[in-house]
Structures are given as C-alpha cells and as structure tokens.
Design brief:
The complex is a heterodimer of chains A (116) and B (114).
Chain A: E1 5-7, E2 10-13, E3 19-24, E4 31-38, E5 42-50, E6 53-57, E7 64-68, E8 74-78, E9 87-94, E10 106-107, E11 111-115
Parallel strand pairs in A: 2-11
Antiparallel strand pairs in A: 1-3, 3-8, 4-5, 4-9, 5-6, 7-8, 9-10, 9-11
Chain B: E1 9-13, E2 18-23, E3 33-38, E4 45-50, E5 55-56, E6 61-64, E7 70-75, E8 84-89, E9 108-113
Parallel strand pairs in B: 1-9
Antiparallel strand pairs in B: 2-7, 3-4, 3-8, 5-6, 6-7, 8-9
The chains are: A mainly beta (116), B mainly beta (114).
Chain lengths: 116, 114
C-alpha cells in the first residue's frame, strides 16, 4: 500500500506571498491531520479533517487554513507568509475508526517551506 | 493528553537492546500508549501501541506495567539506523478537541553507537 505523499517537498517563498501544500493519504484513510515542526516549538498540531469537515484545530492564526476533498486528499494554505512560517509541514493520515486501538497516524515526508 | 515523561537522551551500542522508558502516571483506563520515532528531517514513524498487554511487532516490543503508569519500548537489536527521537504519546480517546491530534513532547534522543 502506498504511503502518505506530500507535494511539493521543498518550497521557497517570500514574505507576503501565499502557499498551498498538498497531501494524499493512504488509501482508505479518511482522516488527515496537519502539523508544523520548527526547531523552537517542535511538532505542533494545526488541524484535522475528516470527510471534508474540519473537526479539530490547533492554536494557529487564521492565515493557516485547509480543506479536504471527497477523495480524502487534503491541502493546507498559508496566506501572507511571515518569516516565522519557515518550517517542516507534515501531514498524517489515519483510519479514524471508532475504535481507539486503530487510530495510529502515518506521516508523510513533509514539505520544507522556507520564507525569505 | 495524559502527560508523559521521557529521559531527554539515551545511548545504546549497536547490536544491543535499547530500552526506552516512559512515565504516564495520569493515564486513564481506556487510553492507549503510542510510540513514534522521527529520524532526522523525516516525518515521524509509527512504531507500536498498546493498552495493557505487552505488544510486539517487527519493529519493537512494548512492555506496559500492570498499573499502566509506565511503559518501556524495546528495540531488541539496535542498529545505527535506529538513531532517532522517540516519542511516547497517550492520546485522549477520540471526540471533541482530541480528533486527529497527537501532542508531541520533547521525546528521547536515542543515539546508537558502532
């Protein structure tokens, strides 16, 4: 089974621009979560989507948004980029079953965003 | 999430067993213990999870104490490629603000030496 894929792998943008990152989950997984990883803050949860609905959101400004499509693929968007948005952005997919024993998350390789 | 405590770093010789401890004294009865690792600059990798019985898969073994307040991840024959940050996580049962959210602490930096 193919793993979680993220595109692009690397991205360089300048302040004020916006960016869209894409995530394709493992086939059959309906939940996609997004995380931001920086050296100073570590891994932080951004939001989670399930069946095209955002079910949970972390403590990030409204410049960070996302969506999920009917095939479970997800995108996240960051508008008005700031230098501090430079980070590794990770997505993870899971079955999101009703059984807590089956909700392990599988992560993609990440998108490395650099804001100049 | 139930708070977890891990040592910041550990060393292990290649070929020996690596035993990584985790304290989770506030874990509730139906919460699972999950272990992930992150090799430098890669996405975290799921390793194993368990409720109260010991678990084993192709990557590792998980030993959970009878009172469930602590656990140990065992890599039976560590290799250089096992050098990574290991995270012990106890996610709350799904629902409400817990959907899809894993809370990563600082983890344990495991360094495997030749």
């Amino acid at each position: 089974k193919a793993g979680v894929t993220q595109t692009p792998r690397y991205l360089i943008k300048t302040r004020g621009q916006q960016v869209t990152l894409s995530c394709s989950p493992i086939s059959g997984h309906r939940s996609v979560s997004w995380y931001q990883q920086t050296p100073g803050q570590g891994l932080q949860f951004l939001f989670e989507y399930f069946s095209e609905t955002q079910r949970n959101k972390g403590n990030f400004p409204g410049r960070f948004s996302g969506r999920q499509f009917s095939n479970s693929r997800s995108e996240m968007n960051v508008s008005t980029l700031e230098l501090g948005d430079s980070a590794l952005y990770l997505c993870a997919s899971s079955l999101a079953s009703n059984y807590p024993s089956r909700n392990e998350q599988f992560f993609g390789p990440g998108t490395r965003l650099t804001v100049l | 999430d139930a708070k977890t405590t891990q040592p910041p770093s550990m060393d292990c010789a290649e070929g020996r067993a690596a035993n990584l401890p985790c304290n989770h004294s506030t874990i509730s009865g139906n919460e699972y213990v999950y272990w992930y690792r992150q090799i430098h600059s890669q996405g975290p990798q799921y390793i194993i999870h368990g409720l109260k019985n010991n678990e084993t898969n192709e990557m590792a073994s998980l030993i959970i104490t009878e009172d469930r307040k602590s656990s140990t991840l065992i890599l039976p024959h560590a290799t250089l490629r096992d050098t990574a940050v290991y995270y012990c996580i106890v996610p709350p049962l799904t629902g409400g603000t817990s959907y899809g959210k894993l809370t990563f602490g600082q983890g344990t930096i495991l360094t495997v030496h030749p």
